[in-house]
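Page 47, continued from p. 46.
Same chain as before, 298 aa.
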Amino acid sequence: MWIDDGRLKTIQEPHADAAAVERLLAEALGDRTHPHDAPERCPPCQQPLVVRTLDHHAIRMCPSEHGAWLTADDIRRMRALAAHSEAAIRRRRAAFARLVVAAGGLFVVRRQVEEAIAPYFVPPAVHEPAPVFDRAAPAPGTFAAVPVKASAIDVRDELAYVVDALRLLDDGIENRLAVDTALRQPGDAPAAFAAFEPKQREFLVQLRALTVPDRLAGFHQHLVVATEHQIELYRAFATRRAADSAVDLKAMLRHPALVTTNRELISAYTVFKKVYPELDTQTHDAVYGRLSAFDIIY
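Result:
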């Protein structure tokens, strides 16, 4: 049987399946030369056929790769190779599926084991996020004031914004400390949050209403986002306290709202330092002290 080079190469592909091989052989058989008329020359170009090794088997091929003459043995061998290749692919796919299932099972088991043994081998403090700020916040009422005449902030609208934002932060800090104290005490946790929320939302409204200079827009946005998430954190804390009076703020350390609040406040500080790299000590302490006091963990 004469088979053209295109069909022959397709059959010889490593991933050719048995059905594809059968279809191509059937197409070739449809326009075959009589079995007893084995050609000596290539039908398209009339060059003498040459013997070449294909998949460790000798067949007669056109030297210009127009096709090859296949015997009955060649066809049986190609069918067998295609069937073997298809079976091998199915085995590999099944093995891969079993591997995925096994890996998923091991991952689940590993997490369960780690969670079970971690308290015995790793101190609890290792699992707690590190404080965002590296110095304890001063007590409310003792924050440094921005030295209006001596501050390194020498752009008028920027200095005015910083003074107003820090004045507002004093109120936000007072609200935060009040609800924090209330929720640490025995009592009605939802009522404590209900007293805190409108005050802190009013602080948020006033914060958003400030005129923000372009260079401090990032600083301002971080403060806004930190406040929004702080409110949500205390809402979640109050809900848990209402259900279980033994729950304390330490149990909320990994709550997304708490993590986001911490991150946004340190980002605000980072932006501020980038805008004013040569900040005077008093202005720095005025900003740093309030941000660290506004943070939930300090």
